[in-house]
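[job 0417] fold request received: PDZ domain-containing protein
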Amino acid sequence: MTPKAMKLNDETMQDTTPSMPTPPIASNATIGANVDIQIAPARPIGLGAMDVDDHGINIGVLRCRRCDSRLVSPGRGLLTDLSAAVAGVPFLPGPDPGMDVQRYKWWWKLRGTNDFDGIGVSRPIDTEHGAVRFIMCGDCQEMPIGYMLDISTNAWLACERVVQQNKDLANDAEDFQLPPGIDINYLKQLMKSQAERKAKMGEYSITFEEKRLGMVLADVEDGPGVEVVAFTEHEGKPGPAEVSEQIKPGDRIIKVQDLNTEGMDYTQVLTLIVNAPRPITIHFERDANNKAIVAPRRQHEEWVPNGP
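[job 0417] inference complete; emitting structure tokens
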């Protein structure tokens, strides 16, 4: 599927703010032979619960149905009816082996992985709706409980796959305690080292309207991360990245839109940039020791997302 078609799919997923105490009724959208699963009116606690405030935001804590780990804290998920997303009805493989694909009506929409307290994300999987990353519990790997599209930073959790707990019963001390065997002094030293490193790094962001940005990315040779190594020209003209006069070779990409790129290689980051709708905001960091002045320039070569 082309990025343009995938973008259309994403745009059809419109938010509807539910009234209290019962979520809004879905429109009668035709979705073919697969009928979306209907769930009961608002339930304050339990599996599939949809307890929201006047703005449609979760009131309770969203937890893993298997191990009870905290997935999302109150005030982060927007209850969304995706039954009208005819061009690409959200789906998930069955939660148990042998179960067929299941389609759901009600989803929690989150702005990105930073809105979660503990999840894991799969590698991109090619589907009829484009490249999809499935979301799992970060502790017990229960999956899939949700998904992300490579063209968007939004994350979606199926209401029927998670448990909502009354926020008054949640215990932050228990949910966020250190794992067994972790030395608190070592952790403090690690946090101090990270803070010192961040103090030496300058962070900035640039928003681009153009599709072709004109910069070459590569994996950092001496550590994790993805960095800019050169600029490209097209028909003899420099690209927007070079024209901005802000980016230097050696600057690392740390976020695309609101999606943290930690743990991604350069092909994943580049695919994310190419597929993302415009305008796109890219966040960079620069080592204080980066003295690069003149950036090498190469001839532009078209990148094929998810290609070899």
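[job 0417] notes: The radius of gyration is 21 Å. The first strand starts at residue 46 and ends at 47.
[job 0417] exit 0
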